[in-house]
Amino acid sequence: MTPKTFKIKSFGCQMNVYDGDRMAELLSQQGLTVTEDTEAADLVVLNTCHIREKAADKAYSDVGRLRREDGSRPLVALAGCVAQAEGAEAKRRSPMIDIVVGPQAYHRLPEMVAQVARGARPVDTDMPAISKFDALPPRRQATPSSFLTIQEGCDKFCTYCVVPYTRGAEISRPWQDIVAEAHELVDGGARELVLLGQNVNAWAYDGRDFADLIRELARIDDLHRIRYTTSHPADMNEALIAAHAEVDKLMPYLHLPVQSGSNRILKAMNRSHTVESYLATLEKMRAVRPGIALSGDFIVGFPGETEQDFEDTLRLVDAVGYASAYSFKYSPRPGTPAATMEDQIPREIMDDRLQRLQARIIEQQLAFNRTKVGRDTQILIERQGRHGMQMIGRSPWLQSVHVETSAVPGDIIDVAIVGAGQNSLTGAELRRVAA
Ligand code: 5AD
Ligand code: SF4
Fold first, then answer.
1. CA of 331 to the centre of ligand 2 (A)
2. Which listed CATH number (3.80.30.20, 1.10.760.10, 3.40.50.720, 3.30.450.40) goes with 132-370?
3. Ligand 1 closest atom vs CA 160
4. Of the candidates 137, 145, 168, 326, which lies 20 to 30 Å from 362 by C-alpha distance?
């Protein structure tokens, strides 16, 4: 059967969201129509994540759930990082999977769909030298805040992480391709670009570095805001810090994963930074951008983590004062060095540590949000709120702001912050700045 409609379900990180959008554009260009209704779609693409927990098991049970009450099923493509990790094994484990396509091969999706119509069950987990980006159509649609992948893969090999295996080696997209895509997105209505990469600040191309790229993108008139994620502490160089000082469009927010507050654990994680070097970087950022919102990632229960190591992590959190942070229980990933390390931490201890860490982070997040009450700021309207005239926008510090306004997504308005909760702020409209 040749599919006419499709649905893409993306899980995990922002790069998967970006990849999902690009696959949708590609399939649309081939004449297929997107549908929101999984039950009605002729083709369902599961764009999976492999970073934590029982990712593969979850993906297979998601596949199983695509079977319909009348016994029929859509054409099923397993995409993303589980597809990359499982490869041809996926076809053996589930007869419902027609296509297995890795994150570096999805430009071949239309061709693979055609192969299925001819009775094949194609698998493509190659990481070809020719970039998938070259085979993708131009961007036509954009959201007020749009993702733009500029770098993929990772050469850092942190001992717990599966990314270097699923996304491959670090590759920077060419300068001119990124600039062209940025223009397409802004012409399509984007007012903010979020530059994406597993090690986004390691981007380098033809003698130019990440700070040069940010300065170039900042020259696009109708682009008002630039963000980026995720960065590695070892790649926070002086040029990037200087860009934060000088480029107004670069938002005062930095997500800089640290993972642990214990140098012993950081070493076992192969993180190539120390607690001291991390804090020194944040110090420099605060010096050039006072009030910058700082965010991080933490893993609790890495093999060998003692109560003392964990308390060092709490101490680091206290020293930083995060605006937000993400914390995870260590999850052994097959094939990574940490998975076979001795002294794996029991689940109860991980649960307890995660709870204590998250309680500390939530306190800090609320405290940060409260510092905005009584202040005026600009927000970019992103979407409709729950009722009536309520819209939801983002502050420069990436907080969600609820506001009653007639402004529409893509507008930038001045608001007075009148309330703060743990996860969002409430604003009162002052005036329209840009549309
Ligand atoms: N277990 C738990 N958390 C992990 N992360 C990456 N790999 C693992 C793992 N095996 C977390 C890190 C990273 C974020 C994207 O996911 O904190 O920064
Ligand atoms: Fe994974 Fe470490 Fe690379 Fe981040 S820097 S993607 S945690 S290996």
1. 14
2. 3.80.30.20
3. 10
4. 145
